[in-house]
Amino acid sequence: MNSATNRWLVLLDQFIEDWVGMTLPRPAVAMQEFVQEDGCMWCGETIHNDLERCTCATRRVPWNRVFRLGAYEQPLSTSILQTKYAAWPEMAAFLGKILGERLRGCVPPNTVIVPIPMPLLRKFFRRIDHAHLLALHVSRASGIPIRRALFRRNTTPQASKTASRRKSLPRNAMWLRPWARIKGKNILLIDDVLTTGKTLEVASNTLQAAGVLSIQVAVLAVTNLPQKGKKL
Ligand SMILES: [Zn+2]
């Protein structure tokens, strides 16, 4: 290779590195300020005052426990959005590994991971099924087997709706796949963010109807909604 070609290759390499570094930094760099913070064991919300009861004390929670990495705040929130909308598998791997390590030894025996399913049409346009990818990495890091037990029909994306409209997710939006083999299992549902919990609730109800033993939820982040669960 002559020196002129070599110079061009070096320039090209530098350009790619600058460009990639500018749009998507390495996951470890993007997340270097992040500190894990557990939330309420039942609803996942941030606990503000240990002496005060959590807002979930006055409402029904459709699962047994929530695990989270933190609140839906920087830098976690940006990383989750980029994973979803910029189809960034490296970040899904990075976050999935942290969540998987957090879950080690925290779930009962006979547990299987079930990712929150994404409608096929949306998967086609987004080019990434982030919850499934996340679940794969959680499974790898925690040693818990994964089973894609749920199937979802095409509905409007949750992220494009307001909090009140999200609650109208139809009850029959999810089905059990044939031969899901989850009866008598402990389930660990995986999603990226817990906001109103409606999607996870529909999934929990579908699984409960199929005769599962218990349902635990593991998410990357939980949105703190000030009005959530408050008495009117
Ligand atoms: Zn709570």
Q: What would you say this structure looks like, in words?
A:
The chain has 232 residues and is α/β, with parallel strands linked by helices. It has 2 domains: 28 residues; 192 residues, Rossmann fold, CATH 3.40.50. Helix content is 37%, strand content 16%. It contains 8 helices and 6 strands. A 4-stranded parallel β-sheet has the order 1-6-5-2. Helix 8 links the parallel strand 5 and strand 6. Helix 3 packs across helix 4. The longest helix has 21 residues. The protein is globular and about 70 Å long. The C terminus is likely disordered. The site of zinc ion (ZN) has 6 residues, from loops.
Give descriptors for this structure.
232 residues, alpha/beta, Rossmann fold, 2 domains, four-stranded parallel β-sheet, two-stranded antiparallel ribbon, disordered C terminus, binds zinc ion
How would you briefly describe this protein structure?
37% of the residues lie in helices and 16% in strands.
Task: Examine the secondary-structure arrangement and name the CATH architecture of the largest domain.
Answer: 3-Layer(aba) Sandwich
Q: Gap between N and C termini, in Å?
A: 75 Å
Overall number of strands: 6
Overall form:
globular
| CATH uppermost class of the largest domain | Alpha Beta
